[in-house]
Amino acid sequence: MSRSDLGWRLVRYRSQCRRFFSSHNQSFDPPISPTLRRVVVTGLGMVTPLGCGVGATWRNLIEGKCGVRAILPEDLKMDGFDEETRLYTYNQLTSKVAAVVPCGTGVGEFNDGLWLNSKDSRSMARFIAYALCAAAEALEDANWLPTEQEEKEKTGVSIGAGTGSISDILDASRLICDKQLRRLSPFFVPRILINMASGHLSMKYGFQGPNHAAVTACATGAHCIGDAARMIQFGDADVMIAGGTEASIDALSIAGFCRLRALSTKYNSAPEEASRPFDCGRDGFVIGEGSGVLVLEELEHARNRGAKVYAELRGYGTSGDAYHITQPQGDGRGAILAMNRAIKQSGLHSHQVDYINAHATSTPLGDEIEARAIKSVFSSHAISGALALSSTKGAVGHLLGAAGAVEAIFSVLAIHHGIAPLTLNLGKPDPIFNNNFMPLTTSKEMTIKAALSNSFGFGGTNASLLFTS
Prior knowledge:
Blueprint: H1 3-24, E1 39-48, E2 51-52, H2 54-62, E3 68-70, H3 83-92, E4 97-99, H4 112-115, H5 126-142, H6 149-153, E5 155-161, H7 166-177, H8 188-192, H9 196-205, E6 211-212, H10 220-233, E7 239-246, H11 251-259, E8 290-298, H12 299-304, E9 311-320, H13 333-346, E10 355-357, H14 364-382, E11 388-390, H15 393-396, H16 403-417, E12 419-420, E13 444-445, E14 450-457, E15 461-468
Parallel strand pairs: 5-6, 5-7, 10-11, 10-14
Antiparallel strand pairs: 1-2, 1-8, 1-9, 3-4, 7-8, 9-15, 12-13, 14-15
Helix pairs in contact: 5-9, 10-16, 13-14
Family: Belongs to the thiolase-like superfamily. Beta-ketoacyl-ACP synthases family.
Protein name: 3-oxoacyl-[acyl-carrier-protein] synthase, mitochondrial
EC number: 2.3.1.41
């Protein structure tokens, strides 16, 4: 081959390389920006210390009843331990009050035999069963039990929990200590995985849309609802079953929160007075259990099938404190960011919000800082008397991972029924309150067109949901 032929071939090869890399380096057009779809609430389901079912819970809440009671040794779920160990553990607990789901076969009671004691329930811990029970009510309420494959593929699940099944972990550790590890249930792992609430629900009904579970401590329920709404907004699903669940009334969970000095200890002899959000006598939260589940749906999808609509989810704000694992920043900056972001996304102005369901858990520091944040966000509207404010944890305690979902349902029901629920046990309000800026001490009939629900969790994670009529 002559030198000229070699040079010609080299030139041709370089030209081909330039064309190849030029064609493969061309930029794609920007992705099409989706038009965000509107999300509405078409079904509700609850399991709470005030009762099993939305009707029982809401009625008892509005009437000022309380779901907190004294705990007994048998509430600690230590069946595998000897009686001496059970009594010793019970006596060591500094907090002996809890908001327990009423169980039984009566109206408004959670039926263990139906949800937990069948052969098919061996892989199902109590927190999962609560979610399935609440979801069954929500789906029936929404009249949404799809049979077509396409409908199932466009229906998803987003249900989380804060701690899962700690009692199963305690039982497993006992087997190790007793050198009986071979007796460990093969269902141990599926029983403790938090995403299994969503997993069991999707399998039961054949839902093949997004299968999601947020775990953000006490903000879990709100984050699961907000995340689900965004999945609908962006077209990942037409319907989402969303909420939170928790079953943490057990020896290890209560002991852990006692050691953290987070639980109320002053009212062991007067359990119904223990959870007192915003009150000067508050000394910690009351641990609770239960589940709240909503059916969220794309607006046109709901209209086309003639579904009833409780409310629209217009705003979802999230933020991080970036400050401390358990304490919010003194100025409530994280809460302020979450509320402002929810309001901005909704397209409303702060003065258009009629009711706030506060996160207030009955802790000395947290309640005051949230009140300060609310005052900062709503300024003159907060002190005008037009903004109704309450914390429903006085009645149901703090449901941890389920709290945000249960309180979101309370906010939706406040809009639907035109009643703002009361704050129980508010005898002497915190000095941060004055004049017209005061939590409700009785349920108030009023027109509620927009309601905000706050949820804040350990690790400085915050979420606010804004619902409108």
